[in-house]
Amino acid sequence: MAVPRRRIAAVSFEDRLSVVDHLDELRTRIVASLAAFFLAYGVCFWQKDFV
User: Fold this and answer.
1) What's the pLDDT score for residue 14?
2) How many whole angstroms separate alpha carbon 1 and alpha carbon 42?
3) Number of helices (H) and strands (E), helices first, in the chain?
4) For a Cys-Cys bond, which of 9, 21, 28, 39 suits 17, CB 3.0-4.6 Å?
5) Whole-model pTM?
6) Confidence bin at 1 (pLDDT 50/70/90)
7) CA 13, 19, 21, 26: dihedral to nearest 10 degrees?
8) Residues 33, 26: Cα–Cα separation, whole Å
9) Radius of gyration over alpha carbons of the chain, in Å?
C-alpha cells in the first residue's frame, strides 16, 4: 500500500503563520534534511571501498 507523500510547500511572505505552524514547518524541514543526510551517509559508507 502506497503511503501518500507530503510535499513541502513554499510559504509566501504574505501568509501569516502562527508559532505552531512555524514549528511544524521547521520540524518537517529538519526531518527531510536528516533523511537526506543519512541516505548520503549510507551510500558513502556502502561505497567506501570503491573510493
Assistant:
1) 62
2) 26
3) 1, 0
4) 21
5) 0.62
6) low
7) 90
8) 10
9) 16
Q: Is 36:8 a contact under the CB 8 Å cutoff?
A: no
CA dihedral in degrees (15, 20, 25, 27; nearest 10)?
Answer: 170
CA distance 17 to 11: 9
Per-residue pLDDT reduced to its tens digit, 7-50: 766 666 667 888 999 999 999 999 999 999 999 999 999 998 87
> Does residue 4 have a pLDDT over 70?
no
Where do we find the cell 533523511?
35
The whole-angstrom separation of Cα 23 and Cα 37 is: 21
d(CA 24, CA 9): 12
User: What amino acid is encoded at 43 in this protein?
Assistant: V
